[in-house]
Structures are given as structure tokens and as C-alpha cells.
Amino acid sequence: MPEQRIRADIIAADNEKRVSALKVGYEALGAKLSGEGIDIDTITENVAEFFVAIPSWGVGTGGTRFARFPGIGEPRNIFDKLDDCAVIHQLTQATPRVSLHIPWDKVDDPRQLKAHADALGLSFDAMNSNTFSDAPGQEHSYKYGSLSHTNSGTRQQAIEHNIECIEIGKIIGSKALTVWIGDGSNFPGQTNFMRSFERYLDSMKAIYKRLPSDWRIFTEHKMYEPAFYSTVVQDWGTNYLIATELGNKAYCLVDLGHHAPNVNIEMIVARLVQFRKLGGFHFNDSKYGDDDLDSGSIDPYRLFLVFNELVDAEYRKTRDFHPAHMIDQSHNVTDPIESLICSANEIRRAYAQALIVDRKALEDYQEANDALMASETLKNAFRTDVEPILAMARLKSGGAIAPVAAFRASGYRESVGKERPIVASGGGGIV
Ligand code: LRH
Ligand code: MN
Ligand code: MN
Questions:
Q1: For position 384, what pLDDT does the model report?
Q2: Is the pLDDT of residue 210 over 70?
Q3: Which H helix or E strand runs over 280?
Q4: Spatial distance between the Cα atoms of 271 and 266, rounded to a whole number of angstroms
Q5: Nearest in space to 243 (alpha carbons), one of 280, 283, 188
Q6: Angle between helical axes of 78-92 and 412-419 (0-180°, round to 10)
Q7: Ligand 1 atom 4: the closest Cα is on which residue?
């Protein structure tokens, strides 16, 4: 039994108040779905086995380049962050893994970190390297790039940092490395597109060589920012080229916020699935750019359509299909624990809705070119309120029917607020 940061009786008392209403809702939904030939318990079991990783950098309050407004009881170090992640998992039963970001996460002793995670019942998802900002005391600056830098010493330093992330990851049980770089340019002519990409590929090949045989490497594309004229790994096409150049342990990571507004992300997902190069996701939502808003808070239909592709891939029994599901968000005005709880639920909601799509009917409508009914088939699933399924999956796994309410009832934030001082300055999710 893992150590629990919230007392079990507090969750039990909150569940007690809600369980009879949940049973009524679950039965009603079960009857509706059964009329459509769907067994609700099977869907609930699938949902209970769907997990999404928490980003260590997401449990601290984020900020913009203008200001950061810290909340109370923010994590002071990676151990505090793991405690907060454990709370999210205890309540949702949906987030047993944590994705680290080095050196934002200062890992002095990986074995001690692993022991802390083990005690909390947590494990580690992909490691994230950081060569988009300078760490104190590093020899070469990343101001003009890292893995694609014109200077070989800078490139070598960035390569070694990624290898260090792999080494830490090996000790704590991670099985993947995610590489996102900010390399690019701010002026036409500032860099040579082809030479930069050649240098980047050479650097990535050096990192790839050091990847253990049972690991995967994910490269993450992003259209712009911090470079505003050109970016070295700017879109999924370039990302696909990287993954094919590197080899069969290399895959593309899709961060939902890294595309131009209105880009058809679900179609990108379908392409990567078809050519066996979908590595995983950074889930978040956005209105304008890489806003890092809470998953499903702006466009839940788009999230559903992404999951529709993933469930379609499962339905077609796509070989070697196991994308990594991770959240990548910044919480500027909410309690990060509450936002991450809601996001994990929204992601599971999209999955549950995608699971109840009548795939046979959809296929028939597609074959018959019945555009309206094909669309209605998706909409019928999307319009279904699957909350009773999500709540029942949580309850059956030992979580909370209403996780935010249970979190508030627990007083966890107030209690850690007494031991963790407010950190007034600092940017992003860096604590
Ligand atoms: C870049 C990014 C990438 C980083 C994270 C902090 O915008 O999405 O995944 O590692 O944000
Ligand atoms: Mn990301
Ligand atoms: Mn991003």
C-alpha cells in the first residue's frame, strides 16, 4: 500500500455523500448504452486502465514573461513535486507516472528519488532535457541554439546533457527521452536552414547511439517560439524526417499547442499512426498559440477527435501501438493540483467518448459517402455525458467520485502551505 498524502477516510466520507446519485446516473447511462449495443462496464474497465503522466513542471504555478503570481504551498523541490503528483493520482487514479524535466528538477541522488516515488506508488515517464535555457555555471550559452549550434563545443555540451538525462532516467526506471529544442532564428538570413538541420541531425544521432535498447526517443516539433522567424524542428513533417533518419527507436511527439490555429491535428495524428511514428502526446489546450491551457478547457471536440484517431488505431489493431500520454500545461491562475485533476479527467472523458463511437456504423457511412450521418455518429458519442463512467472508474480504483471537492475537503493545500514558503519570483513552472 503506497503512502497516502490525503487521509483515506476523508475521501471515503466525500464519496459516501455522492455514491447513491452516482449509481443512479451510472445505471441510466448503462441502459442507454446497452440500447446501442455497448456494455458500460467494459468501457469503465478500459477507462480505469487509461493513464496520463503528470509533468513535474506543472505542479508549480506557471507564469508569463510579464509576471508570476505564486500560490500558497508551492513545491520547493522534486520531492515536494512528487508529493503533489501523488495527491493527484490518489484522487483521480489516472496519473501514476511523472515526467521529469532536467535540470528544472534538481536530481542529486536518483536512487533516493526513485525510493521516494516507490513509496508513493509513482513511477517515471519520459525524461525531458532542457537545452533551451542556460543552467547556472554552464560553459557554453544556448542563446544561439544548442543541438544545431554553429559551435561544436556548444553542440557537444547539449549532447552530453541529453546523455545525462538518459543516465538519470535509467536509474529511476524511465524508458524514454523527449527532446525539444528552441533552436531557430529571428531574422531571414540569420541561419542556413540546411546546415542547421544537418548539425541537428548529427547531434541527435550521437544521442540516439546512447539510447538503451528498450528505450524510445521522442522529438517534439513546435512551429515557433522562442525563435520567431524560423525554427529547426518546426512541424510534423520535419519531425517525421528526424524519426526516420534516426531509426526504429525514434518517434514523433505531438504537443497539442505547437501548431498554427485551426491546423487539423487529428489528421497529423492519423498520418503518424499510419507510418508507425507516433510516439506520444503533450496534452494541453490553446486559443491562440502555445498557451498551455488546461486540457479540454477551450476545444473539447478537438481533443475528442484526437482520441477518435487513437481508438480507431486500436480498433484496427495497429501493430506496436503504444503512444505515451503526458500532460504539458502551465497553470497561472488556478491551483495546479486542481487543474491537473480536471485535465486528467478531461483526457479520460475524450477517451471514453471515443470508445463509444459506433465504429461499424461510421465505416458504413464513410463507404456510402453519407457525410451527415458520419458526422452525427461522432457527435452522438461526443454529446454523451460519460461522467458516470469516469466517476465509477475512479471509485472502483480507490479514488474520489468528485476529486476536486475531495481535495478541497482534505485541506492539503493549507497544510503544505504551512511548511512551504511562498516563492515570489521565478518564471515558468520552475521552482
Ligand atoms: C515547449 C514545451 C516543451 C518543453 C515544455 C516546458 O513549448 O512544450 O515540451 O519541454 O514546453
Ligand atoms: Mn511540450
Ligand atoms: Mn509547449
A1: 98
A2: yes
A3: strand 278-283
A4: 9
A5: 280
A6: 170
A7: 180
Segment 153-162 mean pLDDT = 99
pLDDT for the residue 37:
97
pLDDT above 60 (res 277): yes
- Residue 200 CB neighbours (<10 A): 25
| Cβ neighbour number for residue 49 with a 10 Å cutoff | 9
- The CA distance from 63 to 82, in Å, is 21
φ and ψ of 277, to 5 deg:
-125, 15
For the chain, the domains span: 51-351
CA of 295 to the centre of ligand 2 (A): 13
Question: What pLDDT, on a 0 to 100 scale, did the predictor assign at position 429?
Answer: 44
Dihedral through CA 343, CA 349, CA 350, CA 352, nearest 10? 150
pTM for the whole structure = 0.97
- Report the nearest-CA residue for atom 2 of ligand 1: 180
Among 255, 330, 331, 332, which residue has the most ligand 1 atoms within 8 Å of its CB, making it the best to mutate? 255
Percent of the chain with pLDDT over 90: 97
CA of 255 to the centre of ligand 2 (A): 5
- C-alpha–C-alpha distance, residues 114 and 230, integer Å: 39
Whose C-alpha lies nearest to ligand 1, atom 5?
328
| Cα-based torsion angle of the residue sequence 132, 137, 141, 147 in order, rounded to the nearest 10 degrees | -50
Pocket test for ligand 1, best of 54, 130, 222 (most atoms within 8 A of CB): 222
Domain 51-351: assigned CATH number: 3.20.20.150
For atom 7 of ligand 1, the residue with the nearest CA is: 290
Task: Judge contact between 132 and 226, C-beta under 8 A.
Answer: yes
| CA angle (213 as vertex; 211, 217 as ends), nearest 5 | 45
Query: Which residue matches cell numbers 476523508?
Result: 10
- The pLDDT assigned to 430 comes to 44
| Structure confidence by residue, pLDDT tens digits, 86-115 | 999 999 999 999 999 999 999 999 999 999
